[in-house]
Write a sequence for this structure.
């Protein structure tokens, strides 16, 4: 049997990871500023994380949601505390797409409506409705197509007001990333998020904050939507939540009430996933990683803005997009193969930095030095 070939890959076999470094099968060290796509939040093989998972595995790894799983409640309390949304409710699943899918579904159960507002440049995952609200026709199969999605231009307040004025009573939810990731690191203007809040309140629509990539402390606040000073009704999360262990969640405002059978999952909330997620939050709290993300991210953004070759630097904390002119199209490859630094990309010509939240200034300086060489070649 061979693998279903859907990923264009770099021919590097990573066999080990420690903190912000990974190593290939030939012993070559790489600085990891990509975190396997924003997933590695507290660093590879963090000792506390490894121990917590190991200890849990020796006790029990999995049982279904048909029994009491106290570690779920521990996680809910910790997440409520660290995210500053103590009165929200937690539903656990396994991935970002699943989080968005469940959020959209829950919103529709809540107000009985069918339409969803989503924006240009959005990425929300690849399952049925998550992909329908994603702005990429190439990954939407005919079976995923739905007339329920209203696509509006990014950050266009007038367009948003107009659509609510015309169809507000049919709109179930508005879904928006606080910072678009796949869309090229576009920060949602605070006034736009505030406008979504007030229109959702006015029309009883549900504000869904997709925090799968921009959440979990990466920007210096737990949810990047927090910068706007408004609460969403549902936050979706995954990626950094488990530092590599597949776990996702939705955090649900108290006004949305549960009912038996409304949502469900086999694997979601299993003992091992909860142990991984708790380990991440414990390290984040203990090592003050949100502050570190703000500090080191702020430093990187300031330094990157000094490069005259760079068209624009966007982002917050350790979610950074570096917009380069077409002549530097090879920059990401050069960073990887000549300087052994992993970065991400978003088209066209945007380098994405999504490192672990405990990145140090020395790591940042090593990247800046390599980046200088790459741009001056
Ligand atoms: C903003 C956003 N939402 C949802 C997803 C989907 O997450 P997953 O790949 O875990 O299904 C992603 C993945 O990149 C994402 O960036």
């Amino acid at each position: 049997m061979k693998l279903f070939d859907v990923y264009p890959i770099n021919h590097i076999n990573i066999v080990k990871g420690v903190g912000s470094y990974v190593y290939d099968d030939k012993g070559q060290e790489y600085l990891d500023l990509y975190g396997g796509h924003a997933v590695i939040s507290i660093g590879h093989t963090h000792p506390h994380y490894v121990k917590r998972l190991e200890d849990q595995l020796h006790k029990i790894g999995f049982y279904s949601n048909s029994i009491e799983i106290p570690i779920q409640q521990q996680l809910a309390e910790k997440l409520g505390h660290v995210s500053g949304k103590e009165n929200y409710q937690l539903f656990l699943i396994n991935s970002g797409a699943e989080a968005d899918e469940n959020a959209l579904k829950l919103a529709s159960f809540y107000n009985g409506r069918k339409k969803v507002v989503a924006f240009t440049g959005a990425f929300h995952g690849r399952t049925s409705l998550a992909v329908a609200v994603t702005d990429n026709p190439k990954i939407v199969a005919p079976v995923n197509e739905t007339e329920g999605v209203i696509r509006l231009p990014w950050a266009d307040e007038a367009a948003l007001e107009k659509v609510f004025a015309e169809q507000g009573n049919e709109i179930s939810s508005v879904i928006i990333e606080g910072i678009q990731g796949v869309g090229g690191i576009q920060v949602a203007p605070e006034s736009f998020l505030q406008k979504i809040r007030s229109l959702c309140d006015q029309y009883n629509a549900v504000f869904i904050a997709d925090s799968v990539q921009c959440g979990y402390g990466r920007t210096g606040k737990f949810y990047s939507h927090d910068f706007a000073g408004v609460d969403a009704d549902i936050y979706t999360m995954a990626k950094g939540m488990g530092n590599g262990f597949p776990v996702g969640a939705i955090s649900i405002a108290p006004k949305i009430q549960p009912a038996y059978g409304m949502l469900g999952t086999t694997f979601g909330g299993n003992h091992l996933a909860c142990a991984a997620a708790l380990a991440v939050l414990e390290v984040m709290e203990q090592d003050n990683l949100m502050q570190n993300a703000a500090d080191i991210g702020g430093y990187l953004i300031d330094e990157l803005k000094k490069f005259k070759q760079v068209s624009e630097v966007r982002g917050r904390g350790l979610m950074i997009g570096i917009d380069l002119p077409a002549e530097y199209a090879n920059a990401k490859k050069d960073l990887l193969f000549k300087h052994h630094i992993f970065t991400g990309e978003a088209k066209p010509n945007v380098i994405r930095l999504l490192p672990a939240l405990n990145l140090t200034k020395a790591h940042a300086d090593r990247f800046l030095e390599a980046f200088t060489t790459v741009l001056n070649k």
Summary: The chain is about 35% helix and 20% strand. The first helix runs from residue 35 to 38. Residues 68 and 362 are 45 Å apart (CA to CA).
